Amino acid sequence: MPYTKEHKTRSKERILKSATELFCRYGFDKVSINQIMKLARMTHGAFYAHFESKEALYDATIGEIFRRCRPARLAKGPLSVKHLTTLVTDYLNLRELERKNAPGPEAILFNEIASDNPQIKRAYEKAYLNLRKLLETRITALGRLRRLPFTPDAETVAEKSRAILASLVGAVAIARSLPQEEEQRQVLTAAQKHIFAMLGVDEPRSDDWHGQTG
After folding, report:
1. Do the domain assignments include residue 93?
2. pLDDT at 153 (0 to 100)
3. pTM above 0.70, yes or no
4. Which of 79, 115, 162, 170 would be a feasible disulfide site paired with 120, CB 3.0-4.6 Å?
5. The pLDDT of residue 146 is above 70
6. 199: domain CATH number?
7. By three-state DSSP, how is residue 158 classified?
8. Does the pLDDT value for residue 51 go beyond 90?
């Protein structure tokens, strides 16, 4: 008896969910198809009914992360400095590091920095450009509304977006590698302050951002 369309959709979603968790924890090279299918509680052979390769699954994983992540939802919210800073602080909230089943795009970025795989490099570039575009769009709009203290010309906006991403990815990567929670928090807080300084906006109080929900 052939599987129904709904069954195939659910199976594909299970594979995507498992792959997202494993890729964001360990990176592309350290995760096998067997591990992904074991976590999804499916047979190895079922994999190729949904994806032609591990690289194809990885690319689909990136799309899924961006579709569901909090910044993607924030990007559709009201144009306000509060929404932009929420986007930034959500990444720098230490709780993001503990949500292993709900990783953000920065996990993909720092896991694959040194990859030599051409397909993964293209996927990495896609993730980076999506995040940069998201930041540039919001910064430009807020600048034109005079809610940020600088002229939102293309060069300035691109520079600030790149700098924010560099701080963001570097800080989360370092924090995840450290064993002491307090030092993790200090690294994230320092990066947070730097990002707000780049934007020229006031920092939120610590209780404003530690209490955010995903």
Report:
1. yes
2. 96
3. no
4. 115
5. yes
6. 1.10.357.10
7. helix
8. yes
Rounded to whole angstroms, how far apart are CA atoms 203 and 206? Answer: 9
> Residues near 161 by Cβ (< 8 Å), separated by ≥ 6?
132, 135, 136, 139
State the first-to-last Cα distance of the chain, in angstroms, to the nearest integer.
41
Number of domains in the chain: 2
Residues 47 and 104 in one domain: no
* Count of positions (residues) in the chain: 214
Task: Let me know if residue 163 belongs to a domain.
Answer: yes
160 found inside a domain: yes
Confidence bin at 1 (pLDDT 50/70/90): very low
Q: Which of 92-96, 103-107, 190-194, 200-204 has the lowest mean pLDDT?
A: 92-96
Tell me what the pLDDT averaged over the chain comes to.
Answer: 78
Phi, psi of 148 (to 5 degrees): -125, 145
Distance, in Å, from the CA atom of 173 to the CA atom of 77, rounded to the nearest integer, reads 28
Range 46-66 burial, b when 16+ CB lie within 10 A, else e: ebeebbeebbebbbbbbeebb
Which residues form the domain of 90? 69-210
Q: List the CATH number of the domain containing 42.
A: 1.10.10.60
In a domain, 28, yes or no: yes
> Residue 214: CB partners within 8 Å, gap ≥ 6?
70, 90, 95, 96, 99, 102
Q: What is the pLDDT of residues 87-102, one digit of tens each?
A: 666 655 544 544 544 5
**98 with 43, same domain?**
no
